[in-house]
Every structure is written in C-alpha cells, then in structure tokens.
Amino acid sequence: MSLLYRLTALPFLLLTAVHPPSPVKPAARKVITTSIIPVADSIVPVPHTIQFKIDPIVTTDSSVCVIPFSRVGNLIVIKARADETEGNFILDTGAPKLILNMTYFRNYPSSAAEEDAGGITGGGSGNSPTMVEQFGFGPVHFQKVEADRINLGHIENTKGIKILGLLGMQLFKKFEMIIDYEKNQLILHLISRKESSTYRSELLAAQLSAEMR
Length: 213
Known about the structure:
This protein has a six-stranded antiparallel beta sheet, covered by helices on one side. The protein has a six-stranded mixed barrel with strand order 7-8-12-9-11-10. It has a single domain, classed as Cathepsin D, subunit A, domain 1, CATH 2.40.70. Strand 7 and strand 8 form a beta hairpin. The chain is globular, with a radius of gyration of 18 Å. By secondary structure, the chain is mainly beta.
C-alpha cells in the first residue's frame, strides 16, 4: 500500500496522508488533511515556544533531494553526519531541533542557550546545548546547527541499534517534505519564502491525480 505524507513547515506544518484506492474495487480518492497547526503541536507537545538564536545555513546539491531511510518498528532512521561522526539519526517530527546522543557527543563544548526537547524522548529537558559546525544527510547540508544533548540509551536499548541523535523540525523548516513509506524515501524540496504559499510538489500532484482516476 502506497502512503505519502507531505509536510510543509514554512511557517506551519501541514500533514497530508494519501491512501490509494482499494485493489478489490474502484474507490473514490481519500485525502486526509489536518488543519494547519504550529510545528510545536506536532506528535508530542512541546512545553513552550522554542526560540533559536540562529537558523542553520542550508544548501542542497539538487532542487529535489531524495534521501533513503530504513524503518525500525515505527521509527524512520536516516544516515547522517555531524562533523566527523556518521551514523543513524531518527526523524522525530515532535522534536523542535537537532538532538544529539550525549554518549557520542560528550566532548562537544556547551553553549549558553538551553531549551527543552520534545518528541519521542518523552519531553525531557535538554540540559547540555551545543553547536554542530557541519551537519548533513544525502544531498542536504547545514552549517552551524544548534543542538541539545541528552541520553538516548533507552531508545537504543529498546530498538537494538546505535542512535546518534534525532532530526527535529528546525532542520526542515525551509523544506517541503514528502515521506514515501512504500519506497522508504524522504523527498525534500528547498522552498524560498516567495514559493511557500504557492509551491506544490509534482510528485504529490501526480499522486493526487492518480487517486482521482
């Protein structure tokens, strides 16, 4: 079964689930769309509005970025690189920013800012904020990314994999994101502010057109 999720996080998060017609008999298009809600209300509530000192500098190698992912239970796992450390990061739409596993980033210097981290960690407080100079996955690259460091050992023990951190929504606020569960792909398009109110992905448009037939 094909299932696409579309997330547009500039300036709000819009979630659309597209379900294909039944293979047994023709069915009308099913599009489930939530109302437009603040990113902070995504999946897991965040205690307060997150304020960032700076937004990371974002560049991409292509206009449309396709990033493969794997699934561990209900988690989406993406290979990413934080400076010289590369490994598994979990896409967490409930986390407001990049979260690093303290186990692997304990030698990073702490920054002055301190924010709370929501998401699959259970809403615990991020008690050791830091800065990642270079971060990236696939053709997407970031410079100077604010991050919190917390212990993610309980998730590693539960899922049985090494987890370097969580990919929060600050990283995706300038993108349209499509999560294709059938192909295990994350599709990103970097959107300018001029495009944000009118841009529509060709991939999603094609999917919706197919549903109308």
